[in-house]
Design goal:
By secondary structure, this protein is α/β, with parallel strands linked by helices. The chain folds into 3 domains: 125 residues, Beta-Lactamase (2-Layer Sandwich), CATH 3.30.450.20; 156 residues, 2-Layer Sandwich (Alpha-Beta Plaits); 228 residues, EAL domain (TIM Barrel), CATH 3.20.20.450. 44% of the residues lie in helices and 23% in strands. It is built from 20 helices and 23 strands. An 8-stranded mixed barrel has the order 15-16-18-19-20-21-22-23, surrounded by 5 helices. Strands 1, 2, 3, 4, 5, 6 and 7 form a 7-stranded mixed beta sheet that branches. Strands 11-12-10-13-14 form a 5-stranded mixed beta sheet, sandwiched between helices. Helix 10 crosses helix 11. The radius of gyration is 34 Å and the shape is elongated. The model has no long low-confidence stretch (mean pLDDT 90).
């Protein structure tokens, strides 16, 4: 390619950068090889870690804002351009943003020579190749980047109104069944259904994937947002019918009152994402209004998740296994204990199991934590069998451990490690609503039984209980849930159910443990039903291993 002759002075080049920069999104630049000088559009300073929009010592200063892994590649390129061995520059590499994260750019430019043929200028432009699109050609709407710009014109003082975030439910199924091209068609038609219902002054954007945002800065109320959502649903139903039901789908919505939005576009996106997520959790095809207290609880959960991650990665710091005694129903003598997981969070605050266990399960952290808790429980069982040889320990098992880990080999390995009898361990299956028949579950369940481990169905008597669990799984124990026991010990009808359940279990060769016995009166009534074991505060609250040892084996260890 023939090199161009420089027909402008450096000052004229700089003036042109300043003249045209406000007219474009890209960043214009001039690099003067002879003066070792660099000038770029002023807006680049706001985006990248540049010391200024103009500077000398070009290579030295570039080292401050070019991503280190890409620096050598750029320096080689600049050397070739400066020596006249290349006349056109076109390079993909990374600059560093103000958050110290890399940003992909495409830097293009042309070399302008002096009349004697030596390179004088490199003139060109830089554009972000990883930047979000301002518009979406599929739906015909402005995109998320433009939504951010729209908010920037108003924050921190947003006008009265709302943000309605809409998400198609199970949109992936449409793409998988009909292909991506048809999925794009559905997105276009959905956008038209939404546009048909928004009023003057409201703005519609397509944001991530299958989601849209309606922004109201014209005083719309929450009830207006709900009505808009309902009308959009009706329009979509009309389209589905007109389309001969080729693709049937629903839409969920998350509504945020502008007065809840703190001070930024980012907070608007986070709040609306949360509200939409709640709508989908509640069964989809519905809308949910953002609630600050609900969101605060969610954020606390996210913070707790970070704390739990830290604890797992630091030798299970803060976790502890408590033990609650199990006694014979007829004589009240100690027969074993249930191992219960506890957690001390920030500032040594005891966190409720109802708060942290669901987070462990949702995140998958229940797998390493459950394995650790089992080791603590079996270790304690081995110690206490020195004083009570038939002592047994009950350990809860989460459905996540069953479905997503090698729990069978984990349990067998820990039992062999500590050298206790398999029948010394009773595994309690929690979340009995998940006890669906599957080959994997059957393999784990039968593998535990074949190895000699005792199995118990926990929370029996709650809404999840059913007879096929008893006939198909054939556990060694069933544990009557505390909430059912409270009713049974105070109302005749439920008590008769309790008696019949115990009789049925015994006829099948199963043992029955009644949980939640707290008073002598409850114990007397429970004993009339002839269970095998009792568990409850009357015989002992959950306590640490050291306290359990002192309370129940103090004389032997003194």
């Amino acid at each position: 390619m023939t090199a161009k002759i420089a027909k402008f002075t450096t000052e004229q080049m700089i003036d042109m950068v300043g003249l045209f920069s406000p007219c474009m999104d890209d960043y214009l630049y001039v690099c003067d090889f002879k003066e070792d000088y660099y000038q770029i559009s002023p807006g680049a300073v706001n985006r990248f870690l540049l010391p200024s929009d103009h500077f000398h010592e070009v290579e030295k200063v570039h080292k401050q804002f070019v991503y280190p892994e890409d620096l050598d590649m750029l320096l080689v390129e600049l050397e070739l351009l400066g020596q006249g061995k290349k006349t056109f520059h076109n390079l993909h590499y990374r600059w560093i943003g103000h958050d110290r994260e890399p940003i992909w750019i495409n830097c293009r430019g042309r070399v302008l020579n002096d009349p004697d043929g030596t390179p004088h200028y490199l003139v060109g432009c830089i554009n972000e190749i990883g930047a979000k699109q301002k518009a979406d050609n599929v739906s015909g709407l402005l995109g998320e980047f433009s939504l951010g710009i729209y908010y920037a014109n108003y924050v921190p003082n947003l006008p009265d109104g709302f943000l309605l975030r809409l998400g198609l439910d199970e949109f992936r199924d449409i793409n998988e069944s009909h292909g991506n091209e048809y999925g794009d068609y559905i997105l276009r038609k959905t956008a038209q259904c939404i546009e048909r219902n928004i009023r003057s002054g409201q703005k519609l954007f397509r944001i991530v994937a299958d989601e849209f945002a309606v922004v109201d800065f014209v005083g719309g109320t929450i009830e207006d947002a709900r009505e808009l959502y309902r009308n959009i649903k009706l329009s979509i139903l009309d389209f589905i019918e007109e389309n001969k039901y080729k693709a049937v789908y629903t839409v969920s919505g998350g509504i945020v009152d502008n007065r809840c939005i703190e001070d930024s576009y980012e907070s608007a996106m986070k709040m609306s994402e949360f509200a939409l997520g709640q709508a989908k959790k509640q069964g989809k095809n519905s809308c949910h209004v953002f609630d600050a207290k609900e969101y605060e609880t969610y954020l606390k959960g996210r913070q707790l998740l970070r704390v739990l991650h830290h604890a797992v990665n630091h030798d299970f710091e803060g976790f502890e296994v408590y033990f609650q005694p199990l006694v014979g129903a007829s004589d009240g003598r100690l027969s074993g204990a249930e191992a219960l997981l506890r957690f001390h969070g920030e500032n040594d605050r005891m966190v409720s199991p109802g708060e942290f266990i669901p987070i462990l399960e949702e995140s998958g952290l229940i797998i390493p934590v459950g394995r650790w808790a089992l080791r603590q429980a079996v270790d304690a069982c081995k110690e206490w069998q020195k004083y009570l040889p038939e002592f047994k320990v009950n350990v809860n098992l989460s459905y996540v451990q069953v479905l997503k880990s090698r729990v069978l080999s984990d349990i067998k390995g820990i039992i062999e490690e500590f050298g206790v009898r398999p029948s010394s361990v009773c595994i309690e299956l929690t979340e009995s609503g998940y006890l669906e028949e599957s080959m994997h579950f059957d393999k784990v369940w039968n593998g535990l039984k074949d190895y000699g481990i005792l199995l118990a169905l926990d929370d029996f008597g709650t809404g999840y209980s059913n007879l096929h669990c008893l006939s198909d799984l054939q556990p060694a124990y069933i544990k009557m849930d505390r909430s059912f026991m409270v009713k049974a010990l105070s109302r005749e009808y439920e008590y008769r159910l309790l008696v019949h359940t115990v009789d049925m279990a015994h006829s099948l060769g199963l043992h029955v443990c009644m949980e939640g016995i707290e008073t002598k009166e409850e114990l007397a009534k429970a004993r009339e039903a002839e269970p095998d074991y009792i568990q409850g505060f009357l015989f002992g609250r959950p306590c640490s291993r050291a306290e359990f040892n002192r309370k129940f084996f103090g004389e032997e260890t003194a």
